[in-house]
Design goal:
single chain; mainly alpha
């Protein structure tokens, strides 16, 4: 058995810790929302505020969470 076979067998049998996935989703959604809101503020379509970033992060989090549950 090669190393690749052993890794594939171990990775396919592990579901991982859902708390880590949720934490990663929160962080990445927040960073992406901040980037989107910053870009919108550059073109004058939205103001860069914590409320706008939080709203975008919540929407992105909910969307990615719902998609990954399927």
């Amino acid at each position: 058995m090669s190393d690749a076979d052993g890794f594939e067998e171990g990775a396919s049998g592990s579901q991982g810790d859902p708390r880590v996935l949720i934490a990663m989703n929160v962080v990445l959604s927040t960073v992406f929302a901040a980037t989107i809101v910053w870009g919108l503020s550059v073109i004058g379509a939205a103001e860069l505020t914590a409320i706008n970033v939080a709203t975008g992060a919540i929407l992105l989090f909910a969307l990615t969470y719902a998609i990954t549950l399927q």
